[in-house]
């Protein structure tokens, strides 16, 4: 039996915020080469000018026609207009770009253009967003509803004209060949990591402060208490949502997903956000179950906005088509020789004993994701209160180097989150190769 408790989650988190902006040796070398090229071009122009002056003196001392001097002046003018103007314009462009990147990356970008696009897109797509949210939430709410509820559904969702706003945006990059994420700086914009085309997993990361102060926010649920014949319908409104926190957006790229090679995007808060909202009944109802219903709904919303979306929990958006064939790249295959053995891993879970009221808050879907190199296995998805057991098999190349990663995942109200993560080195378990 594998018992799991809290552990570190996602690959990237808030601890990388504010990383050093110093130049790497490769970036310093590239900058030195560019400066050396400009100095060489300036030196060549100076040498050419001196040669023209010497040639003019020689022609004058020999008493040749003044027309030759005019030709030399014309030649010098053409060179100056070409070379010198090119050197000056390139130096000016690089300096302007450097100043712009320094302002955007070191002082963080305000991203007002992003806020404008998001606002117009959200308002334009409001009906579709409500339909998608209702399609996602209604089945989940009815699966987790307490026993005194016959049904519950989302009937209204709106932000009005106010949408989340982002500022202080910073960019990072990470790949499976890096030990630490690399912050985007003005100097490394055009200096991608070495052998980038050969990495199997690459991530582009944006961190931003996000805020939403929405007095027009309204999310209305219609719940039916009791049975179909003797029950009563009540409307519960969640209003005046306020959120403030630091959010991380990650684009995951891999070499098995077809062009443009973006497999999925993940969104999470890298620290616990500040969340406030109010819940009220749309009309007065004298029922004993109403306070319990409000408490249950409040717990679900807080779980969705804080627990499920705070690192290591995250919302995952799959961008690659699920039914599309993956692109095979032989040069990046798992191995060139036969495997040395097979590792079988058996996972099982025994749920804790809870009373009937506590089980209502434990009814979320859970499963495990196991990875060994490029091999990946996903266990069956079951409720947290259910007993389960599953076995996964992996091909082993090297017992001394191979590592097994186990993540326990859970799906809450709004997002998927990592409950626990373990990275196990096979060399520490005394496994032996058997030749049969």
TrEMBL record:
Biological-process GO terms, alphabetical: lipid transport
GO CC term (a single one): membrane
Boundaries of every SMP-LTD domain copy: 107-320
Compartments where located: Membrane
GO molecular function terms listed in the Swiss-Prot or TrEMBL record: lipid binding
Transmembrane segments: 43-60
Top-level division of the source organism's lineage: Eukaryota
Keyword S-adenosyl-L-methionine: no
Keywords assigned by UniProt, alphabetized: Lipid transport, Lipid-binding, Membrane, Transmembrane, Transmembrane helix, Transport
Keyword Iron-sulfur: no
Entry protein name: SMP-LTD domain-containing protein
InterPro entries reported in the protein's UniProt record: SMP_LBD, Tricalbin_domain
């Amino acid at each position: 039996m594998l018992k799991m408790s809290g552990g570190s989650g996602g690959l990237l988190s808030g601890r990388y915020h504010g990383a050093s902006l110093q130049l790497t040796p490769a970036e310093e070398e590239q900058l030195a080469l560019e400066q050396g090229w400009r100095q060489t071009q300036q030196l060549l122009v100076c040498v050419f000018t001196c040669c023209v002056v010497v040639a003019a003196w020689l022609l004058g001392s020999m008493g040749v026609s003044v027309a030759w001097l005019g030709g030399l002046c014309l030649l010098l003018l053409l060179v100056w207009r070409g070379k010198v103007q090119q050197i000056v314009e390139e130096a000016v462009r690089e300096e302007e770009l450097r100043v712009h990147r320094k302002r955007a990356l070191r002082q963080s970008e305000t991203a007002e253009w992003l806020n404008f696009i998001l606002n117009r897109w959200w308002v334009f797509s409001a009906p579709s967003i409500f339909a998608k949210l209702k399609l996602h939430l209604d089945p989940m709410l009815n699966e987790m509803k307490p026993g005194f509820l016959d049904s519950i559904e989302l009937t209204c969702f709106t932000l009005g004209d106010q949408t989340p706003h982002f500022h202080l945006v910073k960019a990072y990059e990470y790949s499976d060949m890096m030990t630490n994420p690399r912050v985007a700086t003005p100097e490394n914009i055009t200096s991608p990591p070495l052998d980038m085309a050969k990495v199997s997993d690459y991530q582009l990361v944006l961190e931003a402060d996000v805020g939403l102060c929405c007095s027009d926010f309204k999310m209305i649920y219609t719940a039916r208490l009791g049975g179909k014949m003797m029950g009563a319908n009540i409307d519960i409104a969640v209003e005046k949502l306020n959120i403030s926190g630091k959010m991380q957006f990650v684009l995951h790229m891999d070499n098995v997903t077809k062009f443009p090679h973006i497999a999925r995007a993940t969104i999470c808060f890298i620290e616990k956000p500040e969340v406030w909202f109010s819940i009220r009944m749309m009309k007065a109802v004298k029922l004993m179950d109403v306070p319990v219903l409000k408490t249950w709904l409040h717990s679900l919303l807080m779980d969705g906005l804080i627990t499920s979306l705070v690192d290591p929990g995250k919302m995952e958006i799959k961008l690659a088509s699920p039914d599309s064939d993956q692109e095979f790249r032989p040069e990046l295959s798992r191995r060139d020789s036969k495997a040395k053995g097979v590792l079988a891993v058996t996972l099982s879970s025994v749920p804790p004993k809870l009373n009937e009221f506590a089980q209502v808050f434990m009814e979320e879907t859970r499963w495990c994701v196991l990875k060994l190199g490029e091999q990946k296995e996903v266990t069956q998805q079951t409720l947290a209160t259910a007993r389960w057991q599953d076995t996964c098999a992996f091909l082993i190349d090297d017992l001394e180097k191979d590592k097994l990663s186990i993540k326990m995942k859970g799906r809450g109200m709004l997002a998927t989150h990592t409950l626990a993560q373990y990275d196990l080195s096979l060399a520490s378990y005394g496994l032996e190769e058997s030749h049969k």
